[in-house]
Design goal:
Distance between the termini: 40 Å
Largest sheet: 2 strands, antiparallel
Helix content: over 70%
Oligomer: single chain
Order of helices and strands: HHHHHEEHHHHHHHH
Mean pLDDT: 84
Shape: globular
Number of helices: 13
Length: 332
């Protein structure tokens, strides 16, 4: 990482840490939702690495949310224990489904994801144990020692920590041996198979890891809303997750989903003053981005803004060097 990149990252971290004191509670709540959506977008981009776009994100999001809600309400379990349990349940259930689906190719995986999302929502709504269409009872507030996550600032910082863990794990995996195998599968399925890569096994591992972190995002959603409702986990939400990745930039597997989630979440929120037009404006904006900026927002920054800044830095450096040379000449 270069010096400028480190400086920019440091400034971003400082901004994120002081942000809750710079904005009002409503905007802070939107940022909390954005963090949850960003984790979903990261999982979607993660699975794209092996050439599998997934429409089942909302289903596993709901698994994590309802696991946390039910364990806290029915068993009195700590929120922190429900986090890994929800992730493991999503992995175990996913293994039974994907061990059958993944060997049959991308289209079967895609269609089964659509069916799975709609089926999961019906199960959450129809089974009395989950509370029906009205959702669960209000869950207890998560606590950590003397800290009670009643304050939105505390919930925001919890989300930042979980998002940071997501980023660290995904980055480590992308740069590992298994990550290189995933990249080979995503680049050319036939070529990867011809050099001995077990496509089904690597794809299965990728999808199940994604399931774990999607469920974690569901647990975090419950911590921020204190309730799980079936209408949170619709097929439309799975489509929205795909939009986060496209708008942010598909080529940027880590930063893209976060930027996309921020944009796609805030546009509708700030159009609520004209709610009847909000879906039209949002959809039109996303379509225009797909048509005219297929590389996403980060693609624009990389192609146009970054070269402009680099050029400015070079010119500033050249002027400073010239001034220094002239001063030395005058002194002599």
């Amino acid at each position: 990482m270069g010096r400028n990149a480190k400086t920019g990252l440091g400034a971003l971290i400082v901004l994120l840490l002081v942000l809750p004191w710079l904005i009002n509670p409503y905007v802070l709540q939107v940022f909390v939702l954005t963090i949850s959506y960003a984790m979903l977008g990261l999982a979607f981009a993660f699975t794209l690495k092996v050439g599998l776009p997934r429409f089942d994100v909302a289903a596993w999001w709901g698994v994590g949310a309802y696991t946390t809600a039910m364990l806290m309400l029915k068993a009195g379990m700590s929120f922190w224990l429900t986090l890994p349990i929800g992730g493991l349940i999503a992995v175990i259930l996913g293994w039974f489904i994907f061990i059958v689906v993944i060997p049959r190719g991308m289209m079967v995986f895609l269609l089964s994801g659509m069916v799975l999302t709609m089926a999961a929502q019906q199960i959450f709504a129809s089974v009395p144990f989950f509370g029906g269409w009205g959702g669960t009872d209000v869950i207890p507030l998560p606590t950590l020692g003397p800290i009670t996550f009643a304050d939105k600032k505390a919930v925001y910082f919890l989300g930042l920590v979980l998002l940071g863990v997501n980023l660290l794990v995904y980055r480590a995996l992308f740069t590992s041996k298994i990550g290189r195998a995933w990249g080979a599968i995503g680049s050319s399925l036939g070529l990867a198979s011809s050099v001995g890569v077990n496509v089904v096994r690597y794809r299965l591992a990728n999808v199940l890891i994604g399931n774990f972190f999607i469920a974690i995002a569901g647990s975090y959603l419950v911590a921020s809303t204190l309730v799980a409702i079936p209408t949170m986990f619709t097929f439309v939400n799975s489509i929205n997750v795909m939009m986060y990745v496209i708008v942010g930039g598909i080529a940027h597997g880590l930063a893209g989903p976060i930027i996309g989630a921020l944009v796609v979440t805030f546009i509708p929120e700030y159009l609520r003053m004209a709610k009847e037009y909000e879906p039209i404006v949002t959809s039109a904006a996303i379509i225009l981005i797909i048509i005219f900026v297929p590389s996403g927002i980060l693609g624009i920054l990389e192609k146009w803004v970054k070269p402009w800044f680099l050029d400015r830095f070079r010119r500033s450096g050249a002027k400073a060097g010239t001034s220094g040379a002239l001063m030395s000449s005058d002194e002599q």
